[in-house]
Amino acid sequence: MDNLNTLASLGLALPSPAYLFGLILFGITGYAAYRYGKKAALAKPRWIGIALMLYPYAISETWLLYAVGAGLCVALYVYRE
User: Fold this and answer.
1) Of 19, 20, 23, 43, whose CA is between 20 and 30 Å from 66?
2) Does 5 fall in a domain?
3) pTM for the full model?
4) Average pLDDT of the segment spanning 42-56
């Protein structure tokens, strides 16, 4: 428990389980989109897949993680061909 107090005193906080679930969900989706885009030689799904894998590192709010992830998944659906 002392380690948690040390992290809090440094201004760091552990992410919530919902954030971790979203991180894994969108990371796997991004990897699948990247592989699909690479195999089909399509640039848009490949770049959207890269964005899905990397954007969680720039976002710290859980609601924003899901909002951006859902938007990128919609873009992936639209640009799947």
Assistant:
1) 43
2) no
3) 0.81
4) 94
